[in-house]
Specification:
Layout: H1 11-16, E1 19-20, H2 26-35, E2 40-42, H3 46-61, E3 69-73, H4 77-84, E4 91-96, E5 102-107, E6 110-115, H5 121-132
Parallel strand pairs: 1-5, 2-3, 3-6
Antiparallel strand pairs: 4-5
């Protein structure tokens, strides 16, 4: 089993392992998120993936959202390089219940991961384009 776009096509292997796959087309969600980003988030470590990524995943499952998140990293470049890119920006969420049971799901809600540090000028330019995109939504604080 490979955690990437091709690997998740082998649904039976994932299901046999007890891992739920997205009910939406992750390639389409990813492409739409890149073409017309709506939601961008800075700081894309474990907490982000399990909490914010899960919220976005549920919104996608229920049809309340149709595109993935733009994940922006401005501190640890290896997160993008080692955790996102090799896996087509997919993530595996594992929740260990107090009774020892595990809930496991592949999250496809991250459309792209970009490094915003000056050492990555092309990714930084892409990140700036996200915020200037007419599709990007801004929500004022109360």
């Amino acid at each position: 089993m490979n955690l990437n776009f091709c690997g998740i096509q082998e649904r039976s292997k994932w299901e046999t392992a007890g891992i739920t796959l997205p009910g939406y087309d992750v390639r389409v969600v990813s492409q739409l998120g890149k073409e017309a980003p709506v939601w961008a988030h800075f700081g894309i470590g474990n907490i982000f993936r399990v909490f914010i990524g899960s919220i976005a995943d549920e919104l996608l499952e229920f049809g309340a959202m149709d595109r993935g998140l733009t994940c922006l990293e401005n501190f640890d470049e290896e997160i993008v390089e080692k955790i996102y890119k090799p896996f087509d920006d997919l993530a595996l969420k594992v929740i260990l219940r107090k009774d020892g049971q595990k809930d496991m799901k592949v999250l496809g809600s991250m459309a792209q991961a970009l490094r915003t540090m000056s050492a990555y000028p092309e990714e930084r330019r892409q990140a700036m384009n996200v915020f200037s995109s007419p599709s990007c939504r801004w929500y004022p604080l109360p």
